[in-house]
């Protein structure tokens, strides 16, 4: 009997959990990703704000699966999936045949039909995204230092984060700290109180997925860091040198997008039904309707919980789904997925966080400590944990952001921003 | 009396030493660089071979000079120097007036007139260079893993370093370790003994600046790491998929250039006489002939020692020259520069190095320990020292290279290499 070939596309939290869940199964696992590294996305905003180095939150997929002998890793971009022939086609024309397929290709930013905004308001989903945002933020500070016109200097010192979910809140808090505290002694012309950070949200409150009480605490905490929160106001326009919100024009050269996501084109590859965000409407066992061979998990899948609410696009959902699919493949039967919700966390700046664990709701310093511990614990790879822990301690004690490198792109003075 | 304005162009070892040397002087220092960070270039090959992260060998210039109140830092590209008006012109049209000018703009690679080779054989002088080389090397391994044709696979597993100075020797040793040891357990199709590393040198021996005896030891050590050393053979051709040397064609997709350097265009800016490598022929006091206001130091300057040998392009020369220029500016007199040679170091792989300190010549493990200590000691910034020390220890103990990220550039499978 030949071994079943399980192909997993995407080495995020979901895909990796599926691969690991099959470690002892008599199957051949092929994990395909277009990056060579698994990325710990919840900490990506720290790379974008120069607190951590890329290598500290990313580990080569090969190293993670080094000792799993039934798994091989393929670096490649999916061009399409042939359901009849049971093959994944890669862009370099490689063909990977499967008996079971797990699609875990995640999501990208969505600009709600305004793709022209992408140029001025980059999001952060990949390492390259994060270093580009870091470059943008640090260059704005450099330009502010040499700019002599007060209005133009103020524009360089104005930072706007669009979207007040956990990423947006964390990002705004981190930028406020970077611009106000960490760099204050390094510049001669600009002073900490010159900078302005805006957090713009279309909905009525920040952290909409959290209980209202924690939302309010989070808002108070970021406002205390000096962030101006504009809720109930969808952004109206984004250009190279300003945004418009609530009928008001805010001059800025550094806008960061943390508002919407759009699933990867997996639904198109599979010709499957999708929701508005492009997520595949999966069965309760995470199977793609019309086949028993293909599963979709994580940000690629849309599934409602027992209360009819769509499961959020967070790491725990993807991980549990990956594990669940592995179990079904091993047991060769269909089992409905149930999400075990351990709670929600978001951090705000140096020593504040909010945690929602159902009955247990925390905010403030204790929540922040819990947040740190949880993130370091979940980081893949022992070396990264150690290193991130050391960096945080160092940043915390010194207010110093060590990874403040402007890299990539053309030479700085040729930049438009 | 107005304070003298000292403008320093370039924040490498020389420029930074000059700025720091003026810390207590009653002058206004402006340090101009096109990067926001000072780079510890001697360890750049470790970034290129995934041993260290960029932020571990680079520190923001602003942070380094944070407490030096008479210094300001300007991020900018020099467009030209107007000697009559005593002004440095930047590309963004900013004009920086000077009373004294120190030119410390370093060097770039030189392809000896074959600039078409640059595309296929990148050198490593900047962080972006190093991450590009890292990308090239890691992608070659990825392609080898999926390639089924044996000859083409071998080409992906063949790495060529051109130039056997310290950088070339260190690079070849590090690639041999990366390809043979660090990644061996991570891949399924390729095995450690498949890979080939060539070190190509036009001169008769490796490490030409070292005594012959140490050269021989270094050669033996890198050969023991599995590197094939081809001395006395200038490279004849470099193309996308091969190089030609000694009439023989070697198929490869990863060529790294460590052969020649060319000074920055400072001589042209100043309309000063230069040697073949573009270095300004300075006076014994490091002044540019025809003026008492301008100095050139480090890789930008050509100066012979008392034996008539041109001073090498290494960090200690640049540092001592920077300090020397600062002293002359403070004392307002011309003092001939004398290089104090503390010795030469080069490392080969995990626990070998050669050290030449005149009468004291070391090789092997003790030399390697000395090399590590010296490099960690000279790293700018305490945090970096700690972090690099920890990384090295970790890499040493585990054979693991933690910074193996493929970043930047288009999606991997669209790549030609």
TrEMBL record, chains A, B:
<dbReference type="GO" id="GO:0050136">
    <property type="term" value="F:NADH dehydrogenase (quinone) (non-electrogenic) activity"/>
</dbReference>
<keyword id="KW-0285">Flavoprotein</keyword>
<protein>
    <recommendedName>
        <fullName>NADH:ubiquinone reductase (non-electrogenic)</fullName>
        <ecNumber>1.6.5.9</ecNumber>
    </recommendedName>
</protein>
<comment type="similarity">
    <text>Belongs to the NADH dehydrogenase family.</text>
</comment>
<dbReference type="InterPro" id="IPR036188">
    <property type="entry name" value="FAD/NAD-bd_sf"/>
</dbReference>
<keyword id="KW-1133">Transmembrane helix</keyword>
<keyword id="KW-0809">Transit peptide</keyword>
<feature type="domain" description="FAD/NAD(P)-binding">
    <location>
        <begin position="5"/>
        <end position="322"/>
    </location>
</feature>
<dbReference type="InterPro" id="IPR045024">
    <property type="entry name" value="NDH-2"/>
</dbReference>
<feature type="transmembrane region" description="Helical">
    <location>
        <begin position="362"/>
        <end position="382"/>
    </location>
</feature>
<keyword id="KW-0812">Transmembrane</keyword>
<keyword id="KW-0472">Membrane</keyword>
<keyword id="KW-0274">FAD</keyword>
<feature type="domain" description="External alternative NADH-ubiquinone oxidoreductase-like C-terminal">
    <location>
        <begin position="343"/>
        <end position="397"/>
    </location>
</feature>
<keyword id="KW-0520">NAD</keyword>
<dbReference type="InterPro" id="IPR054585">
    <property type="entry name" value="NDH2-like_C"/>
</dbReference>
<dbReference type="Pfam" id="PF07992">
    <property type="entry name" value="Pyr_redox_2"/>
</dbReference>
<keyword id="KW-0560">Oxidoreductase</keyword>
<dbReference type="Pfam" id="PF22366">
    <property type="entry name" value="NDH2_C"/>
</dbReference>
<dbReference type="InterPro" id="IPR023753">
    <property type="entry name" value="FAD/NAD-binding_dom"/>
</dbReference>
């Amino acid at each position: 009997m030949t071994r079943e070939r399980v192909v997993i596309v995407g080495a995020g939290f979901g895909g990796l959990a599926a691969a690991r869940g099959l470690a002892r199964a008599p199957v051949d696992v092929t994990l395909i990703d277009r990056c060579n590294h698994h990325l710990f996305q919840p900490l990506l905003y720290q790379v974008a704000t120069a607190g951590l180095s890329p290598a500290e939150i990313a580990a080569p997929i090969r190293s993670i699966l080094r000792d799993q002998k039934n798994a091989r890793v393929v670096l490649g971009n999916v061009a399409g999936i042939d359901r009849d022939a049971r093959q994944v086609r890669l862009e370099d024309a490689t063909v990977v045949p499967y008996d079971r397929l797990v699609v875990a290709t995640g999501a990208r930013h969505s600009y709600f039909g305004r793709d022209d905004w992408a140029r001025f308001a980059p999001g952060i989903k990949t390492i390259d995204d994060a270093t580009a945002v870091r470059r943008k933020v640090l260059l704005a500070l450099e330009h502010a230092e040499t700019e002599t016109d007060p209005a133009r200097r103020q524009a360089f010192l104005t930072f706007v984060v669009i979207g007040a979910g956990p990423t947006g809140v964390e990002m705004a808090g981190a930028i406020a700290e970077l611009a106000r505290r960490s760099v204050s002694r390094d510049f001669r012309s600009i002073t900490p109180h010159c900078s302005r950070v805006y957090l713009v949200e279309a909905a009525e409150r920040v952290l909409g997925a959290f209980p209202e009480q924690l939302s309010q605490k989070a808002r108070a905490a970021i406002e205390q860091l000096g962030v101006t929160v504009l809720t109930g106001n969808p952004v109206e326009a984004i250009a190279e040198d300003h945004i418009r919100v609530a009928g008001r024009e805010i001059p800025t050269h550094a806008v960061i997008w943390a508002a919407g996501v759009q699933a990867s084109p997996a639904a198109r590859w599979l010709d499957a039904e999708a929701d508005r965000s492009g997520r595949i409407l999966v069965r309760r066992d995470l199977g793609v309707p019309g086949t028993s061979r293909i599963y979709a998990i994580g940000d690629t899948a849309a599934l409602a919980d027992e209360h009819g609410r769509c499961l959020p696009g967070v790491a725990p959902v993807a991980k549990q789904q990956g594990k669940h699919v592995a179990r079904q493949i091993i047991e060769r039967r269909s089992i409905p997925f149930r999400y075990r919700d351990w709670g929600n966390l978001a951090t705000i700046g140096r020593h504040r966080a909010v945690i929602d664990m159902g009955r247990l709701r925390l905010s403030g310093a204790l929540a922040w400590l819990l947040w740190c511990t949880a993130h370091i614990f979940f980081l893949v790879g022992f070396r990264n944990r150690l290193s991130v822990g050391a960096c945080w301690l160092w940043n915390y004690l010194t207010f110093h952001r060590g990874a403040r490198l402007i890299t990539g792109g053309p030479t700085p003075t040729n930049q438009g921003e």
